[in-house]
Write a structure and sequence with these properties.
The chain is α/β, with parallel strands linked by helices. The chain folds into two domains: 195 residues, Alpha/Beta hydrolase fold, catalytic domain (Rossmann fold, 3-Layer(aba) Sandwich); 67 residues, no CATH class. Helices cover 46% and strands 16% of the residues. The chain is built from twelve helices and eight strands. An eight-stranded mixed β-sheet has the order 1-2-4-3-5-6-7-8, with helices on both faces. Helix 5 crosses helix 7. The longest helix is centred in the middle third of the chain and has 16 residues.
Length: 292
């Protein structure tokens, strides 16, 4: 009896172990990845400024539910080297297909958070035949003029560091005007030191990522995405407006919608119980994609 108990515990621990691996893309970029569990593959894509470890609680839930969880550090984040040149959301979509091909699977369940949601939407349009399902959290299908201006501002701050960037009086004035437009409930004079602190040191990876999302827009193509889709968004998201998530849902007839009331931007961490329950329920309800 005791022997069997230890054997079962060992099997559970083994199933939760993450196997690190790397993928080299067709243009030579190395991507750091982890894999855990056995079953249908769920590929999880993090947002700007995060890394694959961001998905820790989702990996546990997916493995427990009988899926294989694969996480990746996007270009320049975590253990993936910073690329030498600017990339696009389309290029990150190609990176995901390199990972899928490396795994040797025909299709994956794709989960994207924030910028990772943009990449996931792009992949759904680029490689529809490679998806079992699509889950989008805290993201948008359209960055309008204000979002483009904000992205360019953040790209420069991240590239140069706030000390250098804000020494340019004209740029500093532009930043103040932008923060006055996008930040609610906090005065500009209070917000500028916070912005300067967050971008104090140059961060090439973030700069490239901010530039990549500038001008991203797929809102007119959402209706082309035919795979089962699940959209989640926090009602209190200060980064991506709640309406942005709801518009993705409206643009994809038949998609499942989960509003997380009082949820912020970092749903996988701050609202992980609701996030995980919603994701697992969605996956289990798919007619032909149960865990292997």
């Amino acid at each position: 009896m005791l022997h069997n108990t230890f054997r079962i515990i060992a099997q559970v621990v083994s199933s939760m172990e993450r196997t690190p691996f790397s993928v080299t893309t067709d243009d030579g970029q190395v991507l750091a990845c982890d894999k855990a569990g056995e079953g249908a593959v769920c590929l999880l894509v993090h947002g700007l400024g995060f890394r694959r470890k961001h998905w820790h609680r989702q990996v546990e839930a997916l493995v427990d539910a009988g899926y294989t969880a694969v996480t990746v550090d996007l270009r320049g984040f975590g253990d993936s080297p910073v690329p030498k040149a600017q990339y696009t959301i389309e290029r990150l979509s190609q990176d995901l297909d390199c990972i899928r091909a490396h795994l040797g699977v025909e299709r994956v369940h794709l989960v994207g958070h924030s910028m990772g949601g943009m990449v996931a939407l792009q992949y759904a349009l680029d490689r529809p035949e490679r998806l079992h399902s699509l889950t989008i959290a805290s993201s948008t299908a359209h960055n309008g003029s204000r979002a483009r201006q904000f992205g360019r501002m953040m790209s420069r701050l991240s590239r140069d560091g706030s000390g250098v960037a804000l020494a340019d009086v004209e740029f500093e004035a532009e930043c103040r005007a932008m923060m006055d437009q996008v930040v609610q409930y906090v005065g500009v004079d209070d917000m500028m030191p916070i912005l300067a602190s967050l971008t104090a040191d140059p961060d090439p990876a973030r700069s490239l990522a901010w530039e990549a999302v500038v001008g991203f827009s797929l809102r007119r193509r959402l209706k082309e995405i035919a795979c089962p889709t699940f959209v989640m968004h926090g009602s209190g998201d200060p980064i991506m407006p709640y309406a942005a998530g709801f518009l993705i849902h409206l643009g994809m007839p038949g998609s499942r919608w989960l509003p997380i009331y009082d949820g912020g931007h970092n749903l996988p961490r701050e609202n992980r119980e609701e996030f995980n329950a919603g994701l697992i329920s969605f996956l289990r309800d798919l007619p032909s994609c149960a865990p292997a």
